[in-house]
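User: Hi! Is it possible to get a structure for several chains at once, not just one? Here's what I have:
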Amino acid sequence: MSFLISSKKNSILLKELVKTDFKLRYQGSVLGYLWAVIKPLLMFAILYVVFAKVLRFGDDIPHYPVYLLTGTVLWNFFTECTQQGIHSIEQRGDLIRKISFPKYIVVVSATSTAVINVLINLFVVIIFTLINGVAPSFSWLMVIPLLLELYIFALGISLLLSSINVKYRDVGNIWDVLMQAMFYAVPIIYPLSMVMSTSVVAAKIIMINPVAQIIQDIRENLITNVTTTTWELSGVAWGLVSVGIVLLVFIIAVLFFKKRSKYFAEEI
Amino acid sequence: MSWAEKYLGKVRKEVEKRNEDSKIAVSVQGVYKSFRLPTEKSWGLKQAIFSRLKGIKGYRKQEVLKDISFEVKKGEFLGIVGRNGSGKSTLLKILSEIYLPDKGTVSVNGTLVPFIELGVGFNPELTGRENVYLNGALLGFSNKEMDAMYDEIVKFAELDQFMDQKLKNYSSGMQVRLAFSIAIRARGDILVLDEVLAVGDAAFQEKCNDYFKSLHGNQTVILVTHSMENVEKFCDRAILIENGKIACDGKPSKVTKEYLKLWS
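Assistant: Yes, the chains can be modeled jointly so their relative placement is included. Here is the combined structure:
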């Protein structure tokens, strides 16, 4: 019973924090919430000009523009989620030092703006996909569990690193650099076939990364079969390894966070 | 005495004890708390690795609370006094479940609403109204509960016309008045206040004084303060904390005398 009451209280607090975050994010800008859509589209425009038009990547992939857009939208979601999440505990130190509440709420609320953004963006992606001449299909439904997998991975990383970041502020910086590196280690702007033509092993290693696995899976289900997923490239076993990494990171993160969060108020 | 009588006696004692317990709002038993204070200036990964390699602990233990035990009855107005750094705020944070005690237990009978600081989570970019609801959610109140309290809070703060203004447009006095009104209008069984009495102008202070006097016997309050005047005016009982121990526990007049002796 007391658990029910407290979980109700927690959901109220979560709702209130999410509302505040979202309200404040675009405060004082003329276009307001529209920026949630405009920013990824502009990012996409830059990548499209550089990689599709100038460098002529992806000539062999049908619907390459939406293929590229999907990749950047998902990647932006992952970076936004983790970067907001990792710094969340340290940024909300004022609350944690003065009020007692479950600390995971801070991390979840920090990632929630990214969740709202990615949902808006995916809506834009789907419109572009239709305009681009892709016929809607039932395989589109697969996007839902895949997106959930990506969120669980991002949340796991956020929980784990945010609790380390309380004591060692280096973690946030290390992660920022790591994300820069990972951007090129995931086939977002280049097609995986480019790597495969040089080294199949390298392609296989790239595709064990859950982020790569998820992005390729969503692209295949949403846009085109003419792409390579982890499951096709390395077999079901390696696909399961990728999903397993997500679950393992999440479980470790939850346990670690639960243990450390009792001391956040003193350490922050 | 037959076994039945013995049993009845046992039950009666149990019931009496339970009745006694239900009159207790907060019970603190043998609480210890220490902090690890870093001895090195710089924090971070580099320092941690160096310290580990050199075999330096990198921190020293500071005992803040040593074996604190006391009880607060329902409806009691308890004052906690002591010098700066004596452990008062740490004790309040343990009562509010912000810190975990190293040893000992704290049991709270009812809902405890802590105000370690006024206006926690207040955001200058939000309106007065939004801030009230956000603050309420942080204290564990639902929107429905806040709806019920909202009018009273605004009325007490005397800010009716300003509630849809952003907080950054408030004067600092107005901000504090709003925060303070949330604190005293929040409907919890136990109110925990840290050094928050002196806010607003003379008229507002007068109003707060009247309000605190009206609470007498109806509301459990735990108040940390440096003002002996307030202790004598509001409190039924006071506790003096010195070096992390309870140095004196009893009538406000006795405790304030002991407090003043610390400097003589």
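Chain B has a mean pLDDT of 86. Residues 74-261 of chain B form a domain with the Rossmann fold fold (CATH 3.40.50.300).

User: Great, thank you!
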